[in-house]
Every structure is written in C-alpha cells, then in structure tokens.
Write a structure and sequence with these properties.
Shape: globular
CATH architecture of the largest domain: Up-down Bundle
CATH class of the largest domain: Mainly Alpha
Strand content: 5-15%
Distance between the termini: 36 Å
Largest sheet: 4 strands, mixed
Low-confidence stretches: none
Helix content: 40-55%
Bound molecules: glutathione
Strand order of the largest sheet: 2-1-3-4
Structural class: alpha+beta
C-alpha cells in the first residue's frame, strides 16, 4: 500500500491526499512535523520536504506537483488532468499560482516566527504582494468560470490546487479577508470543501517546537 508522509496543515500534502482519495487509491498517512529532527522526510527526499509518496517497495516520490503527475501516469482513471493540451496548460498554470501563494505564506509564517524587531518588513511586504497577486489571478479565473469548473468541464488538478491554497489560508493567514474580497473564490472554496476528499483532509494547525529560523 502507498504511504503519504504528510503534515496536518500542509497544502502540498493535502493535494496529494485529495488526488489519492479522488482516484480511490488506498493509502496510509504518516503525520509528521517536517521541521522537527524526528521527521523521516530526509530519508526519502534530499530536499527534506514533505509530502512524500512512499511506494510499496520503500522508495519515495516527492514534490507535490511531481507526485500528482506520477499518479496520473500510474493511475490514469479518473483523470485529474484535462486531456486537451491547452486546458492542461491552463490547469498547470493554476497549480503554479496556487503553489506560489502557499510558498509565500510559508515564508511569511516563518518570518513572523522570528518575533518583534527581528522580522524584515520589506521581505514580508514582498511575500504579501505575492499572496495578494496570486489570489487576484485565481479570482479572475474563478469569476470567468462562474458556476462551472476552473478548467474544462470536470473537477481536476486546477480545483485541487486552488481549493487547497484557500483552505490553507484559513489556517495560516486568517487575517486576510479573501472571502469578502473575492466572492467567486469563496463560492469555489465552499463547493470544494463539501467534497468527501476535501472533508477528509481539512487542514489543522501544527505546533513547531524546535528552532527553525
Ligand atoms: N514545492 C514543495 C513544497 C513542499 C513544502 O514546502 N513542504 C513543507 C511542509 S508544508 C516542508 O516539508 N518543509 C520543510 C522544509 O522546507 O525544510 C512541494 O510542492 O512538495
């Protein structure tokens, strides 16, 4: 059976877990804090990041986008990527934006952890601009899609990426009123969070107790 090394707040790990659930592939979850010395992540990923998809032979596939690509090749049905090449590119672009927002939120989170007087305001402003710009770009796509899916006529990679970044903001960036600012994203998030795969993977904050920054 597959195993996913995951962290409860991680939007990257959530994407992988959602894809596995949507494809009805059995897997177990090994929950870790990737920032703690006890994590098994470096044993599988030289970049020391989760998620890792541990295969039955004990080897690991890592980097969430690559894991999703890998799953699509190994378990093509149901397809989570559009067959049409242009739609596929549009979906991948949404994934790039969503991952970029998550990356900026992670950087903000750790910058804040440095504490008063230590955090760099220009650096945080730069990351906030990425979050805001990324959300604006996602909102444009959600507005254009209306009641439909973001790309094409079925649920897939684009929705997983957009839905998980929005879910992550609820955990790590509560002060940002993206629901008020972008009703189309609020509607998309509500629709996605109602799916069983999303309900089974609701992000939960984690305490980091070892020094990281
Ligand atoms: N681009 C990576 C990002 C993964 C990532 O940043 N994971 C975090 C947890 S949410 C992590 O393991 N960080 C540990 C580290 O950067 O050392 C992916 O999509 O898999």
């Amino acid at each position: 059976m597959y195993k996913v090394i995951s962290a409860t707040p991680s939007p990257y790990a959530r994407k992988v877990r959602i894809a596995l659930l949507e494809k009805a592939i059995p897997f177990e979850v090994q929950t870790e804090v990737p920032w703690h010395g006890t994590t098994a992540t470096p044993a599988y990923n030289p970049l020391e990041k989760l998620p890792v998809l541990v295969l039955p032979d004990g080897s690991g596939v890592y980097e969430s986008r690559f894991i999703l690509e890998w799953l699509e090749v190994m378990h093509p049905s149901p397809a989570l990527q559009p067959a049409d090449p242009l739609q596929r590119l549009a979906a991948r672009q949404i994934e790039v934006i969503a991952d970029g927002i998550c990356d900026a939120v992670v950087l903000l989170f750790f910058e804040r952890m440095r504490g008063a007087g230590q955090a760099s305001e220009p650096w945080m402003a730069r990351q906030r601009r990425k979050v805001e710009g990324g959300l604006r770009a996602l909102a444009q796509r959600a507005e254009a899609a209306g009641d439909g899916w973001l790309v094409g006529d079925s649920f897939g990679l684009a929705e997983i990426a957009a839905g998980t970044v929005l879910g992550y903001l609820a955990v790590r960036f509560q002060e940002l009123d993206w629901r008020g600012q972008y009703p189309a994203l609020a509607a998309l998030s509500a629709k996605l969070e109602a799916r069983p795969s999303f309900r089974a993977t609701v992000p939960v904050p984690q305490s980091i107790t070892e020094a990281v920054v």
